[in-house]
Design brief:
single chain, 194 residues, alpha/beta, 6-stranded mixed sheet, two-stranded antiparallel ribbon, 8 strands, globular
Length: 194
């Protein structure tokens, strides 16, 4: 499965959206990728997990960690492909934590799998979480890399790299033009209700 096929699947399932968006990072963009639209189809989730797992097999992880929400489904599929267990982290009081009695053992090789990487901030946070628990980060994998080359100090693999502009809120041309915006990411879900 090549990047053109991945992008075609994302677009066919209306996962690539155009408009004015506030990303989970707080940045603004005219493009949003909602991988949940394709991952709801189990066959597609399995295909993406299979391909990402093949590309990351040489990292030899003993566990896959998918940050909630975006990393849960694809993380599970990658773990299934690699034949290892899968856990997820959750945001608690603004910080990624392991809950539900999940743990990382000292020296355990952890592969972090996410649906979309934009700034790399969440992934770096999870890398630090794993290292603080004594684990070794084997690598990072994602369906969509829209980071324009964020550097991780571990192997990094994506199914497709996507160029999409992002702006600080005070520099956003869409805000300046009065375009209405939406915030479809999961990070602000709890905040919006409170």
């Amino acid at each position: 499965m090549n990047s053109s096929e991945v992008l075609a699947l994302l677009e066919r399932q209306d996962a690539v959206r155009r408009g004015h968006f506030v990303l989970s990072s707080g940045l603004h963009s005219d493009t949003y990728v909602q991988c949940a639209q394709v991952l709801q189809w189990t066959g597609t989730a399995e295909r993406f997990g299979h391909e990402l797992g093949l590309r990351l097999a040489e990292t030899r992880p003993s566990v896959v960690l998918g940050p909630a929400m975006g990393g849960i489904v694809i993380g599970h599929e990658v773990a299934r492909q690699l034949g290892v267990r899968m856990i997820f982290s959750e945001r608690v009081a603004g910080a990624m934590k392991l809950r539900r009695d999940f743990s990382v053992e000292r020296g355990e090789r952890v592969l972090i799998v996410e649906d979309v990487v934009t700034t790399g901030g969440s992934q770096v946070e999870v890398i630090e979480l794993v290292r603080a628990a004594g684990g070794e980060v084997a690598g990072v994998g994602t369906i969509v890399d829209r980071s324009a080359g964020v550097p991780f100090d571990v192997p990094f693999e994506s199914l497709v790299a996507m160029e999409a502009p992002r702006w600080q809120p005070d520099e956003c041309p869409l805000c300046a033009g009065g375009e209405p915006m939406s915030s479809p990411g999961s990070r602000r879900v709890g905040q919006a209700a409170g």
